[in-house]
Amino acid sequence: MKADPRVAIELDRLAGASDQQLQEYDRASAARRLKWYREQFSGRPVPGEGPLEQAYRLLLLRLGIGEAEAPIVERGPDRLVFHSRNFCPTLEACKILNLDTRRVCRLYNERATKGLIRQVDSRLSFRRNYAKLRPYTEYCEEIIELTGEA
Question: In whole angstroms, what is the distance from residue 128 CA to residue 108 CA?
Fold first, then answer.
């Protein structure tokens, strides 16, 4: 089986990276995601009904995955919870480098994800349940909430 080039990129970025470097990568990722959003949705709505659904659909589109890879497990008026089971190059690199995904994912890509979904609605918030994160569980539990605060 041929190695996924996305894992090699993550290995290069993560090997020996300090917290500050991870945060810098997160900022750069946020800029790329916002550029992608503007190119894809300039003046057009994101598919989905309501801001929670739209934010969820936006994340699926950005990651290039389907609902089966990140199924919704809880849906409420102000909260949507899904379990990501998709291939993740960051996870694979962390396993190879023996890095803690709880540290890496918090610093490396959480701000970028928050920034992307806030394009749908400034009241949206994104977070992960770090008690339920791969490889410590079979999925990454991720939460989108409508906070009511703009």
Answer: 13
Domain ranges of the chain: 5-146
Q: What is the pLDDT of residues 104-141, one digit of tens each?
A: 999 999 999 999 999 999 999 999 999 999 999 999 99
Are the C-beta atoms of residues 70 and 58 closer than 8 Å to each other?
Answer: no
Q: Which residues pair with 145 in a beta bridge?
A: 79, 125
Q: Alpha-carbon distance 7 to 11, whole Å?
A: 6
Burial letters 61-98, b for 16+ CB under 10 A, else e: ebeebeeebbeeeeeeeeebbbbbeeebbbbbbbeeee
Element (H, E) at 93: helix 89-97
Residue 106 is inside which H or E element, if any? helix 101-108
**Its pTM surpasses 0.90:** yes
Fold (CATH) for 5-146: Muramoyl-pentapeptide Carboxypeptidase; domain 2 (3.30.1380)
Lowest average pLDDT, out of 3-7, 29-33, 101-105, goes to 3-7
